Amino acid sequence: MTDVSDGVLRTLFHSDQGGHEQVVLCQDRKSGLKAVIALHSTALGPALGGTRFYPYASEEEAVADALNLARGMSYKNAMAGLDHGGGKAVIIGDPLRDKTEELLLAYGRFVASLGGRYVTACDVGTYVADMDVVARECRWTTGRSPENGGAGDSSILTAYGVYQGMRASAQHLWGGPSLAGRRVGIAGVGKVGHHLVGHLLAEGAEVVVTDVREDAVRRVLDLHPGVRAVADTDALIRVDGLDVYAPCALGGALDDTTVPVLTASVVCGAANNQLAHPGVEKDLADRGILYAPDYVVNAGGVIQVADELHGFDFDRCKAKAAGIYDTTLAIFARAKTDGIPPAAAADRIAEQRMHEGALARGW
């Protein structure tokens, strides 16, 4: 973006997220590309995070989202035990209308110009086929198809990691990791949610689902006739006898409206940024609801794409994703010791790891 507005500059230099190492504003007039690449931290290694393609209302909004998402990836990668820092990219536009091969190739050239400081992957609005195109210009691209040296769909291990987080929550709260006989409500049964349904049913859990897309719900019900569906998320969080609530769709699922009426004892889901604002984690704790931090339990996908850089091996990735169980238990233990909510405990552990990584690099 050659013409940077005052609003963009204010967002960059006065963001309450803070601490970012580098922000790159990208523009290619020929293809129409406008993008932001944000690197929050490389203390643990090259920044790793996906590319979001979204019709932002303004450049300021795009920059703010990139900064927020990049910071979140630093924490996620640290807690996943990866040798990667956090980064994120956003492309401004409607992916259904504006996405072209020329634009993706131009974007790949911008990522390549960072020389490996940022490794990209899929996110909202981008898919495996898109990463195959980006990879033609940039070798620091993950989330590619198996035919092009990648691992393909990362939702399988994302769901598996969330399942492990649920097992850890059950162990902490009920004294055993089994979810048999537990009633689990899943909001969003798309790429990740429908895999999660399978894990839960295999263990003997009772599953209730909802999704804004009727076809997504119908696919689950056709495959698993024993699953029950409700009209919407508001109905789901009020289901009697709900043990676990799994937000697996949009962020901000836990707010001042939902938390007071939530019937579940555990919240553990795949959605990013589930806490609508600071303080929600305390509201959950005050109600006795155990919250498994989203960026910890949904890290199976980033574990998978990171493995592509070393020659993808599914069994190796699954074993690492299984470690989300122990990581989640460690967070609950730290929260109890420090007398803080699990979300705050996860942040402390992640920040400690990043600090140690920086010291090891002589920073």
TrEMBL record:
One GO molecular-function entry: valine dehydrogenase (NAD+) activity
One GO term of the biological process aspect: L-valine catabolic process
Organism in which the protein naturally occurs: Streptomyces roseirectus
Descriptive protein name: Valine dehydrogenase
Broad class of the protein's primary localization: cytoplasm
Known catalytic reactions: L-valine + NAD(+) + H2O = 3-methyl-2-oxobutanoate + NH4(+) + NADH + H(+)
Positions annotated to bind NAD(+): G188, V189, G190, K191, V192, G193
Pathway terms, separated by semicolons: Amino-acid degradation; L-valine degradation
Subcellular location: Cytoplasm
SMART domains, per the entry: ELFV_dehydrog (SM00839)
Annotated catalytic residues: K88
Primary enzyme class: oxidoreductase
Enzyme Commission number(s) of this protein: 1.4.1.23
Keyword Cytoplasm: yes
